[in-house]
Amino acid sequence: MAFHLLQRDRKGGLQLADALSNAMTEIGHCQQCRTFTEEEICHICSNPKRKENGQLCVVESPADIAAVEATGQFSGRYFVLMGHLSPLDGIGPSDIGLDVLDYRLRQGDIGEVILATNPTVEGEATAHYIAELCHEHQVSASRIAHGVPVGGELELVDGTTLSHSLMGRQKI
Amino acid sequence: MAFHLLQRDRKGGLQLADALSNAMTEIGHCQQCRTFTEEEICHICSNPKRKENGQLCVVESPADIAAVEATGQFSGRYFVLMGHLSPLDGIGPSDIGLDVLDYRLRQGDIGEVILATNPTVEGEATAHYIAELCHEHQVSASRIAHGVPVGGELELVDGTTLSHSLMGRQKI
């Protein structure tokens, strides 16, 4: 990309440099949900319609917000951890903003916390830690379902996922 | 493989041919669950311990039995459809053994049917058809959970799976 810009599009390269430098200095974190935004409060948190159902979806990164938004299934607000608990790397509760989350839970306008951290060991541990926090504040906490991905073949699914899928079976 | 056997291991090739021809003539279907077996009744169906919990897991192919067995989470019996409903290809209920299943449900020793057909459109349609059959016989039917596979990253999961995962969230 650098060679292309140097050979063919020096003006475009300067624009790109400008945009990048602007982004680096202007983009901060939303004060409510910690996602990236140029405003004080991001456009999801400041939308009054997203407050109505009282759901708060906890994700690990701003990219996860995009993934959940793409499903069109969720109309509440988000909270971005910007990582996950990892005591060995020295990442504790306050590093992933759980003090901010604690403050938000205390305000009483959140009815359900949906824990959508990654389905990895660290993600599960973080989800359980936050679930404890929710129970302290008498807020209901739920975890997204583990199971077989839609469109796949049963025999190609790994054993752990299949066993979660069997345990989480639902009546029809 | 054929070149290797011709060049290096003609005796092994003959043994392989024998084994294959034996398998083709000797292996039939279990009379109870329709999986491949050399006996009249396969070793899972003839094991009295597997009858105790009254669970019957419906899968599309014998390979799926191996996948579910590998999880170690299931101790009931199986029923193998050997395919799925596909009206356009002329595959109806009796082609996937639903008359045999109907007979088994009528015997009253099955308490729950776990529908573990593939998470594809045809698999879902087949699962719903069998669930109707179970309701006629007052047998409880459940579907394995759809959701994010364990160990993955949320942002790499497809939208349909993620939306199933959100809908199927469970309290913790």
From TrEMBL, chains A, B:
PROSITE patterns: TOPRIM (PS50880). Keywords: DNA damage, DNA recombination, DNA repair, Metal-binding, Zinc, Zinc-finger. A zinc finger (C4-type) spans 30-45. Coiled coil: none annotated. InterPro entries: DNA_Rcmb_RecR, Rcmb_RecR, Rcmb_RecR_Znf, TOPRIM_dom, TOPRIM_RecR. Gene3D superfamilies: 3.40.1360.10, 6.10.250.240. CDD domains: TOPRIM_recR (cd01025). One of its GO terms (biological process) is DNA repair. Residues 54-149 form the Toprim domain. GO terms for molecular function: DNA binding; zinc ion binding. PANTHER family: RECOMBINATION PROTEIN RECR. Belongs to the RecR family. HAMAP family: RecR. May play a role in DNA repair. It seems to be involved in an RecBC-independent recombinational process of DNA repair. It may act with RecF and RecO. This is Recombination protein RecR. It comes from Vibrio maritimus. The lineage of its organism: Bacteria, Pseudomonadati, Pseudomonadota, Gammaproteobacteria, Vibrionales. The gene is recR.
